Amino acid sequence: MISVVGVFASRTDADFAVNKLLSAGLTKDQINLLIPGSDTDELAAVPVEDMEERGVGEALGGVIGGTMGAVSGWSLGAAVASLFIPGIGQVIAIGATAAAILGVGGAIGGAKVAEALEDISSKGLPHDELFVYEDALRHGRSVVIALVNHESQRKATQEILTSSGAESLDAARDDWWLGLRDVEAEEYQRKGHDLKGCESSYRCGFEAAQHPFARGKSYTQVVTELKQKYPDKYGDDAFRDGYERGRHYHEKALEGHLQAQ
Fold first, then answer.
1. Where are the chain's structural domains?
2. Sign of torsion, CA 134 12 79 71?
3. Number of C-alpha atoms within 13 angstroms, CB side, residue 146?
4. How many Å apart are CA 159 and CA 153, to the nearest integer?
5. Residue 26 and residue 139 in contact, taking contact as beta carbons nearer than 8 Å
6. Distance between CA atoms of residues 178 and 180, nearest Å
7. What tens digit of pLDDT does each residue of 222-248 get?
8. N or C, which end of the chain is more exposed by having fewer CB within 10 Å?
9. CB proximity list for 45: less than 8 A, separation 6 or greater
């Protein structure tokens, strides 16, 4: 599978994009939507059915199958879960793999993640960008994740998301870093270093600490994985410094104190 992601400033735009994707031929099983907040009245209005997604239902308990008109304006059946994500708050996850994507990042325990992915192909699930989705949700934005099967479908899907007002994943990632860069440059300067000459390695290490495999772990605990994923940078001092600051950032995110870095 190939993941195509759009970050939307408003839920209305996200819903519009979803309907355009459906009209273009994507199925409900290919589309996932993450919405910040939790409107219990909306969720209560969705008819509860037997759990179609067996593993997801067992893992989350709060998954609902039903007509989605009450939640997002979609005229399709979908799996729905209202999840509490540390450092973000309540998130409504709509779609066969939406809850599983968040679960890989720690919202659900390891064994339950496996259950949540039961009967769902995990190949292509966009786990590495989880921190970008989290930042978008933290700032009140919605995220559409479409899983497609080939390159031509990827291009068509990306065009639909862009024309519907989506910010691309790369742009959202860059915005996330720009919001952190000045603080990180100042912190690095206090340690006697200049970020200008090594920003690429530092940022790479900072982002590495946000990935599911690294969260809550020291550099030495995941050095084998880091070597495989970042063979050209993992050994740089700036990468290690960025990784440690990235760990600090994630800890503050969990505590809900990102402004107090």
1. 2-165, 173-260
2. positive
3. 32
4. 10
5. no
6. 5
7. 999 999 999 999 999 999 999 999 999
8. C
9. 70, 71
- Both tokens assigned to 167: 């910010």
Kindly tell me the burial class for residue 151, based on how many C-beta atoms sit within 10 Å of its own C-beta (0-12, 13-18, 19 or more). exposed
What's the CA gap between 145 and 177, in Å, rounded? 21
pLDDT: which is higher, 201 or 98: 201
The whole-angstrom separation of Cα 72 and Cα 143 is 13
As a three-state string, the secondary structure of the chain is CEEEEEEECCHHHHHHHHHHHHHCCCCHHHEEEEEECCCHHHHHHCCCCCCCCHHHHHHHCCCEEEECHHHHCCCCEEEEEEEEECCCEEEEEECCCHHHHHHHHHHCCHHHHHHHCCCCCCCCCCCCCHHHHHHHHHCCCEEEEEEECCHHHHHHHHHHHHHCCCEEHHHHHHHHHHHHHHHHHHHHHHCCCCHHHCHHHHHHHHHHCCCCCCCCCCCHHHHHHHHHHCCCCCCCHHHHHHHHHHHHHHHHHHHCCHHHC
The amino acid present at 19, given as its one-letter code, is N
The pLDDT tens digits for 53-100 are: 333 333 333 333 333 433 444 544 556 777 777 788 888 888 877 877
CA distance linking residue 54 with residue 5, whole number of Å:
26
In the chain, the amino acid numbered 250 is H
Instruction: Quote the CA–CA distance of 144 and 97 in Å, as a whole number.
Output: 12
User: Residue 150 pLDDT more than 50?
Assistant: yes
The angle, 0 to 180 degrees and rounded to 10, between the axes of the packed helices 130-138 and 169-190 is 90
